[in-house]
# Entry
Amino acid sequence: MGKNLHTTTTAVHAGSRKDDVFGAINEPIYLTSNYRIPTDGTPVDWSGIHSNIYQRNRNPNQMVLQEKLCALAGADDAAVFASGVAALASVFTTFLNTGDHAIVSEVCYSATNLLFREYLPKKYNIEVTLLDTTDTEAVRKAMRPNTKLLHIETPGNPTTGISDIDAIAEIAHQNGALLSVDATFASPITIRPLTHGADLEIHSMTKYINGHGDALGGCVMGKTEFIDQIKELAMVNYGGILSPFAAWLITRGLITLPLRMAQHSKVALAVAEYLEKCPAVRFVWYPGLKSHPQHDRAVQYMHGMYSGMISFDIKGDEKQHEKFLDSLHLITHAVSLGDVESLIVYYDKNSDKLPHYPAIYREGFFRFSIGLEDENDIIADLEQAMKTCGVL
Ligand code: PLP
# Structure
């Protein structure tokens, strides 16, 4: 396929193959656990990742998805896994060894936080510094001779803080360490970490990449030498592979990702601007707002599309917050994000996560994933719920 195609064209065509046997336009789902092995004396690499032997080594639906992801992210290679957490764990277990030190965003997805706060130090004696990676100088100061991995989340879940990928990549590389970036909150369309020096780009494909709330998956992208190591250890030998059916569903979702991200971003900006002016709102952070603490970085990194994630809080007490959630009609109170429909979750002030968050978050807040609905309908839903709970 031509290299200079526009993003929407790439999303449709990259990885697509025409079926020579039946002429099917869509890739079939290869529901087979094993493949015929040649009997011509060619040596068989039982743990290999470059031929079809067994579904855990490689399968065609994974391959199509990986090719489309690479074309969209500008990556050499990709590995896909059964969930975003499996993709994250594949990076941490492949590149960290006993005695190594890692620097990690302290505002990050809960499993990443737990892995670095508890499991990796206790089980494998890995040293960890959790810090605010939006503060580049703090990252620089935390480097040690044995620092092997810097792992950042940008935008961070749930605060939407933006880290300086170029600067952190330079710090990592000066010390021979790798930089991995979880860019789930942005999708590969609105942030491209690999073009800013990151070595590994990670996404929970459960979110924007699939987008339809019906499959879990995760991916890691980067240079072939890194991705091969990840596949050999984490795919073949730890085994958290993506099933052919989930790969097929996620490939179908990925086709519309550029269109969806444009709509998520347009609607989210309008909703964030509304919330910023609303007298019942205590605070709102959205990377596309000038008031966001790292708005300049968002402009630098996010290509004018700021994705669909907003964090905010309304005034009032806990009962009113509950009533607000209960009064929403279009917007659903549910975990996860990046779906076609708007989803909201509330972190109450007793949540054990809050101590690591910026001060304004510690009284509790909402994480809001804007769907593909019209902005006027979302704003009307928020407004009627704020009136019903008495804050407006
Ligand atoms: N990374 C981020 C930033 C996330 O928000 C999530 C899930 O919410 C994950 C990783 C984990 O993804 P999964 O639920 O697909 O394992």
